[in-house]
């Protein structure tokens, strides 16, 4: 039996919260432990035991809450407690996506995605892989931060999987491409970092670049 992933949701859309209870209730390896309109409400919710909040494995966090709380502050607060954070938002705003990952979010997904995409993202985030979503691909494809190479979605996916410890063959299989093609993508990534003045020759170098650029949400 698969290990159960505990999930909490912070969103001030009550209809969405009700929907989450219904949707996630039908997924065997996911268990919704709490819903709240703000991070403060979550930390004082019924998910507490003996007066202390028990962090969920993954928190789905609405980026812009009506209480006016700082999105980055919310992300950092939840991450410090030990939860992985999957940001959910109404729009794929590039700047906000990058800022969210820099604050410590593990993924970013828009609310127009269907349940299977959400479930996959939760599982990926819980496993420490980050969520390889179209929104993230969009943000990093058009990110113009100085010194950060512009990577294609496939280049980024191969880089993340390889730097996270996968073999090149395994990274290729996950991306649905041949090992030779995966190597080509990885070589392009290395060349782009070299042109940016930040060489990355080894797997350890690449892992450092991933962390420095917030590509893994760390």
From TrEMBL:
<feature type="domain" description="Response regulatory">
    <location>
        <begin position="6"/>
        <end position="126"/>
    </location>
</feature>
<protein>
    <submittedName>
        <fullName>Response regulator transcription factor</fullName>
    </submittedName>
</protein>
<dbReference type="InterPro" id="IPR016032">
    <property type="entry name" value="Sig_transdc_resp-reg_C-effctor"/>
</dbReference>
<dbReference type="InterPro" id="IPR000792">
    <property type="entry name" value="Tscrpt_reg_LuxR_C"/>
</dbReference>
<keyword id="KW-0238">DNA-binding</keyword>
<feature type="modified residue" description="4-aspartylphosphate">
    <location>
        <position position="62"/>
    </location>
</feature>
<keyword id="KW-0597">Phosphoprotein</keyword>
<dbReference type="InterPro" id="IPR001789">
    <property type="entry name" value="Sig_transdc_resp-reg_receiver"/>
</dbReference>
<dbReference type="Pfam" id="PF00072">
    <property type="entry name" value="Response_reg"/>
</dbReference>
<dbReference type="InterPro" id="IPR011006">
    <property type="entry name" value="CheY-like_superfamily"/>
</dbReference>
<dbReference type="InterPro" id="IPR058245">
    <property type="entry name" value="NreC/VraR/RcsB-like_REC"/>
</dbReference>
<dbReference type="InterPro" id="IPR039420">
    <property type="entry name" value="WalR-like"/>
</dbReference>
<dbReference type="Pfam" id="PF00196">
    <property type="entry name" value="GerE"/>
</dbReference>
<dbReference type="InterPro" id="IPR036388">
    <property type="entry name" value="WH-like_DNA-bd_sf"/>
</dbReference>
């Amino acid at each position: 039996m698969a290990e159960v992933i505990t999930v909490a949701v912070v969103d001030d859309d009550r209809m969405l919260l009700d929907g989450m209870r219904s949707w996630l209730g039908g997924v065997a390896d996911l268990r919704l432990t709490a819903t709240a309109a703000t991070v403060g409400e979550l930390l004082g919710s019924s998910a507490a035991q003996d007066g202390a909040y028990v962090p969920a494995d993954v928190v789905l966090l609405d980026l812009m809450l009506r209480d006016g709380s700082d999105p980055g502050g919310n992300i950092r607060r939840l991450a410090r407690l030990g939860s992985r954070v999957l940001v959910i938002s109404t729009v794929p705003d590039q700047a906000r996506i990058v800022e969210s990952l820099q604050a410590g979010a593990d993924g970013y997904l828009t609310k127009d995605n269907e349940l299977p995409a959400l479930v996959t993202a939760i599982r990926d985030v819980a496993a420490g892989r980050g969520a390889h979503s179209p929104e993230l691909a969009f943000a990093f494809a058009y990110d113009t931060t100085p010194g950060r190479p512009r990577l294609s979605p496939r280049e980024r996916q191969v880089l993340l999987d390889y730097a996270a410890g996968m073999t090149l063959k395994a990274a290729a299989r996950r991306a649905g491409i041949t090992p030779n093609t995966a190597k080509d993508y990885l070589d392009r990534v290395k060349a782009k970092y070299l042109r940016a003045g930040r060489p990355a020759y080894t797997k350890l170098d690449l892992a450092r670049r991933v962390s420095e650029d917030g590509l893994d949400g760390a």
